[in-house]
Amino acid sequence: MAYANYKPAPPDLGGAQAVKLLIAGGFGAGKTTMVGAVSEIKPLRTEERLSQIGASIDDLTGVAGKTTTTVALDFGRITISPQIVLYLFGTPGQDRYWFMWKELSAGALGAVVLVDTRRLGDSFGALDFFESRDIPFIVAVNCFDSADMYEEDEVRQALDIGAHVPVQFCDARNRASGKQVLVRLLEHLMALATGTTHARPW
C-alpha cells in the first residue's frame, strides 16, 4: 500500500535531531490513541471502519466496542526538547498487516510495545519482531478502565521478558502519560548507547 512508503517531508528543525520511533502492539491496544494524544501536529491516521468480514476475522474479545482499525499507519510528531524531535509511527495491529512492519521499522531507533493486559497474547508478535531485529524497545502497559491491574513482575512473567526491558504503566489517552512513555524509551536508548546499563542490545 502507498501508506507503507509514506515519508513526511522533514521540517526545518533548527538543528534539532529527528528521531524515528514506532508505537506497536496488538489489535486494539491503543496505538492510534497514544499517537493522537501526544502529537503536536494533527496526526495522520489510516483508520477504516470494521466491516462484518473484518470482525469475523479479528478477535474482538475485550475490545467489543471497537468500531475502527488502522489499516496502514499512524503518524505524529512531538518535540521533546530543543535538541530532540520525535517522529512517531503507529503500526497496524492485525496479523494480516504485518508485511508493512518491515518497511515501517526501517530507520527506527526504538519502539514502544503497547500492551493490553486483557489480551496479552496479542503482544508476542511485536515482541518477537523487535527482538529478532535487534531494535530496542520498552513495554508500555495501557491501563484500560475495564482491565485488572497487575504488578510489574507479573507483567514480565506473563510476557516472558527480562529485567533488561523497561516496563512503564500508562494511560494512552493522556498526553502527559504518553509523553512519559516516550521519555522512558529515550532514556533506555541513551543508556544502551552509552553502555550505562547491562541491558542486552534490544
Summarize the structure.
This protein is α/β, with parallel strands linked by helices. The chain has helices at 31-38, 52-57, 101-105, 124-132, 152-159, 175-194; strands at 17-25, 44-49, 68-81, 84-90, 110-115, 137-142, 167-170.
How is this fold's topology laid out?
Layout: E1 17-25, H1 31-38, E2 44-49, H2 52-57, E3 68-81, E4 84-90, H3 101-105, E5 110-115, H4 124-132, E6 137-142, H5 152-159, E7 167-170, H6 175-194
Parallel strand pairs: 1-4, 1-5, 5-6, 6-7
Antiparallel strand pairs: 2-3, 3-4
What structural keywords apply?
28% helix; disordered N terminus; Rossmann fold; seven-stranded mixed β-sheet; single chain
Give an overview of the whole structure.
Helix 5 links the parallel strand 6 and strand 7 (about 165-170). The protein has a seven-stranded mixed sheet, with helices on both faces. Residues about 1-15 and about 50-60 have low confidence and may be disordered. The longest helix has 20 residues, at about 175-195. The protein is about 30% helix and about 25% strand. The radius of gyration is 16 Å and the shape is globular. The protein has a single domain, classed as 3-Layer(aba) Sandwich (Rossmann fold). The protein is built from six helices and seven strands; from the N terminus they run E-H-E-H-E-E-H-E-H-E-H-E-H. With about 200 residues, the chain is of the alpha/beta class.
